[in-house]
Design goal:
Elements lengths: L12 H10 L17 H20 L9 H4 L2 H12 L4 H18 L6 H13 L6 H4 L3 H17 L5 H19 L4 H5 L7 E4 L2 E6 L10 E4 L4 H16 L22 H16 L5 H15 L7 H5 L4 H28 L11
Antiparallel strand pairs: 1-2, 2-3
Helix pairs in contact: 2-5, 5-6, 8-9, 9-11, 13-15
Length: 356
């Protein structure tokens, strides 16, 4: 059975050479490749997407090793490829795969006009639906706030807990607290380090990331209001109990420590957050959903200031934030509609705003 995504090492020579050239940094007189400033994560995603296309061509007997990427990506092949994906994947996955193909084509064969391919991608995006309904998974921010307060309280009150289990409870509470007031991506959450990306400034702790550490390559700073006592308690009393569980200690200045005394990875951070919320709230809230929670709450409770969500989420373009904001407006509209129906059933007239 052919591999689902052909790795770069197994691409035809012309393809991997074009890929390498796109990632080259130029000198004083030469321009950088179009993918030279991509993060490793972006490069891997696009490479997997193009590798999926090559795997499809190999499966259908159309992978000519002597051809170039420009010769390989044709309209008829892409249309057949879309049909192949639709039989096996959700519509959002199909749209994502074609976006990855667009990006690979753009940087590997920049001399070609790929507008036809971008139009296909645009149509697929308009037709796609979310694989999961995030609205059904969200909970009010007040519920999460109450949860992390309860977890911290349990760690202090439950005398039967061992020291390291008590430390894990405080760590979990602090994770939820940070995501609630400053919803970082899982990668940045895992990269939080005492003294560098987590800094004490006066009475408050701040999150600080350099442009190279952020997805959008922009400097990011945000305070963690109301969390000073919890952070101080974790750093002084509970984090040391987790660090010593590794012999010798390997945690360094990492903020989030596992029960084995090692720094948590981004995937482990996501698993911890999902496990806590699933256990305590019956909802699997991963770090990405916390990023939708903030603009949604603002849209419902303070729509005039929903724009503050953009810098808090680290979005370069407000339209990215707007997509989450629209979710909040839909929820708010549904609630008002329910109130209207309730007033009609009760035989009362809904209140109207007085015009000046």
């Amino acid at each position: 059975m052919p591999r689902l995504c052909l790795p770069v090492s197994e691409w035809p020579a012309s393809d991997w050479k074009a890929w390498e050239a796109a990632h080259q940094h130029g000198g004083l007189l030469d321009d950088d490749g179009l993918a030279a400033n991509w993060t490793p994560g972006t490069s891997k995603i696009v490479a997997d997407g193009y590798g999926r296309f090559l795997s499809f061509l190999a499966e259908t007997g159309e992978l000519d090793s002597s051809g170039s990427p420009a010769e390989r990506i044709t309209r008829s092949r892409v249309e057949t490829y879309v049909g192949h994906l639709r039989e096996r994947n959700h519509s959002s996955t199909v749209a994502a795969r074609i976006l990855q193909l667009v990006e690979a084509a753009r940087v590997m064969a920049p001399e070609i006009d790929w507008r036809w391919l971008r139009r296909i991608r645009s149509r697929l995006r308009r037709m796609s639906t979310p694989a999961r309904d995030d609205r059904a998974r969200l909970v009010p921010a007040a519920t999460v706030t109450e949860l992390y307060s309860d977890l911290a309280g349990q760690a202090e009150a439950c005398k039967h807990l061992s020291d390291w289990r008590r430390a894990l409870l405080v760590r979990d509470a602090l994770m939820l607290a940070v995501l609630t007031v400053c919803p970082l991506r899982a990668k940045n959450m895992a990269a939080m380090a005492i003294g560098t990306t987590l800094q004490r400034r006066g009475r408050e702790w701040w999150v600080v990331f350099l442009p190279a550490e952020m997805k959008n390559r922009r400097h990011f700073e945000a305070p963690l209001p109301g969390l000073t006592v919890l952070i101080d308690s974790y750093l002084e009393c509970y984090r040391p109990l987790l660090v010593v569980r590794s012999t010798p200690p390997v945690a360094g200045n990492a903020l989030w420590i596992s029960f084995t005394g090692k720094p948590l990875t981004a995937k482990e951070v996501g698993r911890v957050v999902s496990r806590i919320t699933k256990r305590e709230l019956g909802r699997d809230l991963n770090p990405h959903l916390f990023r939708k929670l903030v603009p949604t709450e603002l849209a419902i409770h303070d729509p005039e200031h929903v724009g503050v969500a953009q810098p808090l989420l680290g979005h370069a373009d407000y339209r990215t934030t707007q997509r989450a904001y629209n979710l909040g407006r839909a929820m708010d509209a549904a609630r008002k509609h329910q109130q209207l129906l309730g007033s009609i059933r009760a035989g009362t007239k809904p209140l109207r705003r007085r015009r000046r």
